[in-house]
Specification:
Helix content is about 35%, strand content about 25%. It is of the alpha+beta class. The protein folds into three domains: about 270 residues, BirA Bifunctional Protein, domain 2; about 100 residues, Anticodon-binding domain (Rossmann fold); about 70 residues, Translation Initiation Factor IF3 (2-Layer Sandwich). The strands form six sheets. It has an eleven-stranded mixed sheet, sandwiched between helices. Strands 17-16-19-20-21 form a five-stranded mixed sheet, sandwiched between helices. Strands 4-6-5 form a three-stranded antiparallel sheet. The two termini are about 40 Å apart. It binds zinc ion. The site of zinc ion has 7 residues, from loops.
Length: about 475
């Protein structure tokens, strides 16, 4: 058993010493993803896809419950459409992949492979929306998009990635902003309640907003290497796209007006965030609510193989009602090998059952988060497992919250900010006057970028660059 454990550990570098190598090794070894023959693209393997699928299912239920419907728009965007909103095309142009030929024939107009779908959805809205009676339109699609990235990393930055993109149209500005915030709250619940990743929630400063939008709401998480990661965004697009694409409606007052639109998304990048946030030197570690397998049962047959296997099967059957359960009854691996393998794959709970347990009508419960093994009676095992899953979920969130709090500090001077970015990193709270020049000065001197202005912001004090009164509180961090 000792040799099994050593073999596993040897293939995963230390998380604290070689974070980047550790991350890639865990993604590959836990079979979440693999490199593909296409530069910059990755293959999402079944175990990685199961994580995405669980996020998808959870989100889609909330989207439906809040009145959204799903549609599908084409992969290709005619060049002329992409160019209609000037700031938008400027923002995405460097990353667009173009289709120039159909077979051997050169196309009359190049087609962009969608980097996002505003430019293909808005022309359809122009056709579908005529009157206030047609509003709101609350629509989303699940698809992949392509952004030609130069440097790529599994899940975190790939040329093609999976996401959903919501695109809504409203009669008033207030309604569109409320939509952005509804979605933001759904994302916050996904991050904090399901993935156990605490986030800072708020608005992006103008320099970081979506190209073509008025403002962007964001959720920012802190990874163990103390770099921030943008976990999701919800964009208030104002009337910019509506004006560019001629999406107008006849209002109740009989006046024709451009609609107000929003767009929002989270991507497979969340799978990468999940790996980084909770994993350790033994591999992946998954919060129960997102884990594809929540409980694995490992029989330890000894000399009573049939008896133990029958008890293990009965146990799996019982637990199906309360958990996603897997019985590992493979003969070709030892129990010790299985323990290590399932720990590496991040399964939150393990139940071991041997001849003595069968005789005593019990099993042994082991948590991926550590702590002593516990004996649980088969009678009432459903409740014991459900309770342990809740506790493990809470443990992951509490750890993340403690880490976030520990690595969020306030500074009042540029020197203190520079030192914080050099020594501790993490999120650093600053006061800002709102002047772009002051933001640029901070970026240049620290290498950090402004991540988020809190939703409930009450600016106070003086701008740490120029000393003028602050108009916003901004959290800075180095970021992915
Ligand atoms: Zn200033």
């Amino acid at each position: 058993m000792a040799t099994d454990a050593q073999a596993f550990v040897k293939e995963i570098p230390s998380k604290s010493e070689q974070f980047s190598e550790w991350y890639t090794a865990v993604c590959l070894k836990a079979e979440l993803a693999d490199y593909s023959p296409v530069r910059g693209c990755m293959v999402v393997r079944p175990y990685g896809y199961a994580l995405w699928e669980n996020m998808q299912r959870w989100l889609d239920d909330r989207f439906k419950a809040t009145g959204h419907v799903t549609a599908y728009f084409p992969l290709f965007v005619p060049e002329a459409f992409l160019k209609k909103e000037a700031e938008h095309v400027e923002g995405f142009a460097p990353q667009v992949a173009w289709v120039t030929h159909g077979g051997d024939e050169k196309l009359a107009e190049r087609l962009a492979v969608r980097p996002t779908s505003e430019a293909i959805i808005m022309p359809m809205y122009a056709r579908w929306i005529q009157s206030y009676r047609d509003l709101p339109v609350l629509l989303l699609q699940w698809c992949s998009v392509v952004r030609w990235e130069k440097a790529t990393r599994l899940f975190l930055r790939t040329a093609e990635f999976l996401w959903h993109e919501g695109h809504t149209a409203h009669a008033t500005s207030e309604e569109a902003d409320a939509e952005c915030r509804t979605i933001l709250e759904i994302y916050r619940q996904l991050l904090e309640d399901v993935l156990a990743i605490p986030v800072l929630v708020g608005k992006k400063p103008p320099s970081e907003k979506f190209a073509g939008g008025d403002w962007t709401y964001t959720l920012e998480a802190l990874m163990p290497d103390r770099q921030a990661i943008q976990a999701g965004t919800s964009h208030f697009l104002g009337q910019n796209f509506a004006k560019a694409f001629g999406v107008k409606f006849l209002d109740r007052d009989n006046v024709e007006k451009p609609v107000w639109t929003t767009s929002w998304a989270v991507t497979t990048r969340l799978v990468g965030s999940l790996v980084m946030a909770h994993g350790d030197d033994r591999g992946l570690a998954l919060p129960p609510r997102i884990a594809p397998i929540q409980v694995v049962i490992v029989p330890i047959p000894g000399k009573e193989r049939e008896k133990v296997l029958a008890a293990a099967r009965a146990l799996a059957e019982r637990l199906k009602a309360v958990a996603r359960v897997r019985l590992d009854d493979r003969d070709e691996y030892t129990p010790g090998w299985k323990f290590n393998d399932w720990e590496m794959r991040g399964v939150p709970l393990r139940l071991e059952i041997g001849p003595r347990d069968v005789a005593a009508n019990q099993a042994v419960l082991v948590r991926r988060t550590g702590g002593p093994k516990a004996t649980v009676a088969i009678e009432g095992v459903e409740q014991a497992v459900a309770r342990a899953l809740d506790e493990v979920q809470g443990e992951y969130y509490a750890r993340g919250k403690a880490f976030l709090d520990e690595h969020t500090l306030s500074v009042a001077t540029m020197e203190a900010l520079e030192e914080a970015m050099r020594e501790r990193r993490g999120f650093v709270r600053t006061n800002w006057c709102g002047d772009q020049a002051c933001e640029d000065a901070i970026r240049a001197r620290t290498g950090a970028s402004p991540r988020v202005i809190p939703l409930d912001d009450r600016p106070q004090g003086a701008c740490l660059v120029c000393g003028r009164p602050s108009t916003a509180t901004v959290y800075y961090a180095r970021a992915y």
